[in-house]
User: Which sequence fits this backbone?
């Protein structure tokens, strides 16, 4: 019995070891799908928060996914936090040298003014794990209150750029499945309403165009009748004058 | 009994995974030749039919297809990343795509060397969603994958898949959703029909792209791992009586 159980343990252990091919910590798919489909600020914000969390987990577990820093950086840049975004993109270039040219192009597009900041690049990429932790903390701080980022180097004023308050934080971050479903249903209903409103406005515009055309036709008809009437009157007047002249003669 | 277990273990762990080697080598010979390290997933080309919006159901149907198309695009990078390729994420890819002025057709047929020179990308994956078909309990999708090299402009891979997912039905003829579909629906906050489509495209992506050869980054890591693991390099011996012997040994130079 003991031997059988040992054999089974070996079998299971071997199978488990062979199955451990090491998958990476994934990107936040649900939030990404939400942003990709609806593209609202709220969905972008919740995507950025989820990315910060997964980035932090990946850094802690040493399972960095290629493009994680870049994704988070682009999300931050789209939200307007360009300084932090620049730091994240520099971190991506440092962690994955294959993506350096791509990161350069993205920076060129999103933040051309921060492209040639070599000193900041060197400083940002000095300690990647600290950077990710800082990003996570900063976004955690962003949730309930206006944005307050921890100052890492007090002599460096560029870090203070992140301390500008953010007023437009809309959605809660930790959502239950029911809340998510509710939000999505609301979003779907909103989309449908918007679509309906768009259709209504198109129909109204079409109707207005038809009405205007009818009105223009009626006006033209009226003008033509008035002109005909005036022409007839003028003709009558001329005839009358001609007859009077003939009588005089 | 003991030896039989050991034989099973060795068979399952070593022999079966190595069975696909030669076939894979022939199928992906172009990829083995070019050794791409960075793959960029181009924006999805969605050719599937959308309903003209007259009723609310039409909007819901179109939204469902949009969500599934987005899911197809988003999950395409997962198998590639797990195979060791560097794949920029969807937000970064959107920024790259925004700078592109050529049409999708031009990108597929003309030279894309500039992707290598400007962005350092080795291959571009074009995905085309051709059509959707569904009955009460089955969903079908037709997807085309083209992987083009930015060095030689040649096609490294070209696959056209027609995948169908069929669910069992109850006595009324309504489909019985799987537990995984329900979980997906809860997690993503979408209806069950959208969940069916999303899970179908996810499976298609996994099936088509999981078997690609490992990226050159992984290959390089595999060749270097003995050097990296030098201090912890050890040998494991499993004896016929089930005991395990662990022996540390030095790296041979």
Assistant:
């Amino acid at each position: 019995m003991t031997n059988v159980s040992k054999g089974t343990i070996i079998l299971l252990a071997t199978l488990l070891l062979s199955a451990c091919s090491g998958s990476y910590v994934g990107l936040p798919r649900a939030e990404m799908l939400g942003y990709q489909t609806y593209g609202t600020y709220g969905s972008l914000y919740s995507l950025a928060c989820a990315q910060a969390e997964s980035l932090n987990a990946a850094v802690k577990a040493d399972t960095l996914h290629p493009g994680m820093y870049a994704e988070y950086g682009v999300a931050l840049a789209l939200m307007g936090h360009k300084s932090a975004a620049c730091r994240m993109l520099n971190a991506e270039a440092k962690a994955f040298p294959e993506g350096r040219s791509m990161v350069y192009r993205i920076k060129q597009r999103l933040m051309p003014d921060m492209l040639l900041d070599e000193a900041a690049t060197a400083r940002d990429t000095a300690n990647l794990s600290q950077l990710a932790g800082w990003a996570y903390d900063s976004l955690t701080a962003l949730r309930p209150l206006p944005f307050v980022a921890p100052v890492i180097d007090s002599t460096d004023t560029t870090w203070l750029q992140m301390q500008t308050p953010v007023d437009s934080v809309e959605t809660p971050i930790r959502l239950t499945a029911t809340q998510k479903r509710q939000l999505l249903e609301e979003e779907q209903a909103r989309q449908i309403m918007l679509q309906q409103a768009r259709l209504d406005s198109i129909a109204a515009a079409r109707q207005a165009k038809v009405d205007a055309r009818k009105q223009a036709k009626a006006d033209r008809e009226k003008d033509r009748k008035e002109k005909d009437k005036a022409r007839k009157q003028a003709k009558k007047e001329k005839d009358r004058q001609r007859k009077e002249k003939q009588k005089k003669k | 009994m003991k030896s039989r277990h050991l034989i099973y273990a060795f068979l399952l762990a070593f022999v079966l995974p190595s069975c696909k080697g030669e076939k894979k080598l022939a199928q992906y010979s172009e990829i083995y030749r070019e050794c791409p390290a960075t793959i960029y997933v181009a924006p999805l080309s969605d050719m599937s039919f959308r309903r003209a919006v007259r009723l609310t159901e039409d909007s819901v149907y179109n939204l469902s297809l949009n969500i599934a198309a987005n899911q197809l695009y988003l999950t395409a990078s997962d198998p590639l990343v797990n195979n060791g390729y560097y794949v920029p994420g969807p937000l970064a890819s959107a920024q790259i795509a925004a700078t592109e002025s050529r049409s999708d057709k031009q990108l597929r047929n003309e030279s894309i060397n500039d992707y290598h020179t400007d962005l350092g990308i080795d291959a571009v994956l074009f995905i085309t969603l051709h059509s959707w078909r569904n009955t009460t309990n089955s969903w079908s999708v037709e997807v085309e994958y083209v992987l083009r090299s930015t060095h030689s402009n040649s096609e490294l891979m070209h696959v056209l898949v027609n995948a169908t997912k069929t669910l069992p039905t109850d006595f009324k003829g309504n489909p019985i959703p799987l537990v995984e579909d329900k979980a997906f629906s809860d997690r993503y906050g979408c209806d069950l029909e959208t969940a069916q489509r999303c899970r179908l495209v996810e499976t298609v992506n996994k099936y088509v792209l999981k078997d690609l050869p490992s990226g050159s980054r992984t290959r390089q890591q595999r060749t270097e791992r003995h050097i990296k693991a030098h201090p912890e390099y050890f040998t494991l011996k499993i004896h016929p009586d089930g005991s395990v012997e662990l022996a540390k040994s030095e790296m041979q130079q």
About this structure: Residues 15-21, 224-232 of chain B have pLDDT under 50 and may be disordered. Chain B touches chain A through 57 residues (CB under 8 Å). The first helix of chain B runs from residue 2 to 15. The radius of gyration of chain B is 23 Å.
